[in-house]
């Protein structure tokens, strides 16, 4: 998995079958080279020679995926033949289900050649073709590994963008993107303190939330839109933030803006959770943002009656959950089983997701 945070690739070896609870046996991560990260960021907007640049970035990504796979095999002493498939999500550069498409750059045929393992890729487009958002796709996996009998439990993935999975005690499962997760926080840290991200949220913790600006940010129509819904850099991007700051007026201390962006993530998650699952008892947090202690503190403050904790305490470390989810979705594809939940994505029905590239 490589997500909208654009920090790198996480891979896992998942031991799974239809009759057993999935378990992670190994994890490996590789950071994006700076040039590849810049290429993907640039491809989120229109530019010259996009087809060539996109194809070259896809090839580089596949090589990085293959390196992660090779490292996992070495760690466990496995041969490629011992692995049923590689689930490879690709890198999202455009997500416009409102226009009937979503684009995840990838080179799955090259990845199959490099690994000598069957590859399952392009998970989102079939759901979009069926009228769905193509996202989020992880709630079914979250139910398989995190559901608590007799309790309403939510799972929050804090990547570049945040998404909730709502696991109701009665067996119903819902989910949607709540809005920005780490993306705007990372952008602002890179712009003002020259760091890839605000480690632990320390810079945000030193700032003061600007309540007027926060209200302005939360007034974006996305936050009040009913689910099914999904979002990404097409909606929330640096130019969007600059417009909000400009309309707000006045010069704000950069660390106060960072504090306000952290409050935006926490508040938008909390408000969406209260509306959709008023009986929630626990919020399980995963994704890279789970290591942002300031953000976790803000979430707990916004949800005082809810137990906010990490997926680490439920058996899967936060950085491994999304990669495990797409391994599980690859299993669904090979078994001919649906991977989407129509109640989540809005698709007209269950669909087998993904395209298969045999070894």
What does this structure look like?
The protein is of the alpha/beta class and 359 residues long. The chain has two domains: 8-133 and 320-357, Nucleotidyltransferase, domain 5 (2-Layer Sandwich); 139-318, Nucleotidyltransferase, domain 5 (2-Layer Sandwich), CATH 3.30.420.40. Helices cover 41% and strands 20% of the residues. The protein contains 14 helices and twelve strands. The strands form four sheets. It has a five-stranded mixed sheet, sandwiched between helices. A three-stranded mixed sheet has the order 3-6-12, sandwiched between helices. The protein has a two-stranded antiparallel ribbon with strand order 1-2. Strand 7 and strand 8 (161-167) form a beta hairpin. Helix 8 (211-218) packs across helix 10 (238-248) and helix 11 packs across helix 12. The two termini are 20 Å apart. The mean pLDDT is 96.
């Amino acid at each position: 998995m490589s997500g909208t945070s654009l920090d790198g690739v996480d891979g896992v070896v998942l031991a799974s079958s239809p009759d057993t609870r999935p378990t992670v046996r190994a994890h490996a991560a590789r950071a994006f080279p700076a040039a590849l990260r810049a290429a993907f960021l640039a491809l989120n907007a229109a530019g010259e020679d996009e087809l060539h640049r996109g194809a070259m970035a896809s090839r580089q990504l596949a090589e990085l995926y293959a390196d992660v796979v090779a490292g996992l095999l070495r760690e466990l002493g496995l041969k490629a033949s011992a692995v049923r498939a590689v689930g490879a999500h690709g890198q999202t550069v455009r997500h416009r289900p409102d226009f009937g498409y979503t684009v995840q750059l990838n080179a799955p045929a090259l990845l199959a050649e490099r690994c000598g393992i069957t590859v399952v890729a392009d998970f989102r487009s079939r759901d979009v073709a069926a009228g769905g958002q193509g996202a989020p796709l992880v709630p079914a996996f979250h139910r398989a590994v995190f559901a608590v009998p007799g309790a309403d439990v939510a799972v929050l993935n804090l990547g570049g963008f945040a998404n909730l999975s709502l696991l109701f005690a009665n067996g119903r499962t819902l989910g949607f993107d709540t809005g920005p997760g780490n993306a705007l926080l990372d952008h602002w840290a890179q712009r003002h303190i020259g760091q890839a991200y605000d480690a632990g949220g320390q810079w945000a913790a030193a700032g003061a939330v600007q309540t007027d600006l926060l209200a302005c940010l939360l007034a974006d129509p996305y936050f009040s839109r009913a689910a099914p819904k999904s979002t990404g850099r097409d909606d929330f991007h640096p130019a969007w933030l600059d417009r909000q700051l400009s309309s707000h007026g006045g010069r704000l201390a950069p660390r106060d803006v960072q504090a306000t962006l952290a409050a935006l993530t926490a508040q938008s998650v909390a408000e969406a959770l209260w509306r959709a699952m008023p009986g929630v008892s626990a919020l399980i947090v995963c994704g890279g943002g789970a290591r942002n202690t300031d953000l976790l503190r803000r979430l707990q403050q916004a949800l005082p009656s809810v137990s906010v904790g990490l997926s680490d305490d439920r058996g899967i470390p936060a950085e491994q959950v999304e990669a495990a989810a797409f391994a599980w979705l690859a299993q669904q594809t090979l078994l001919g089983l649906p991977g989407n939940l129509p109640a989540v994505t809005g698709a007209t029905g269950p669909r087998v997701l993904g395209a298969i590239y045999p070894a």
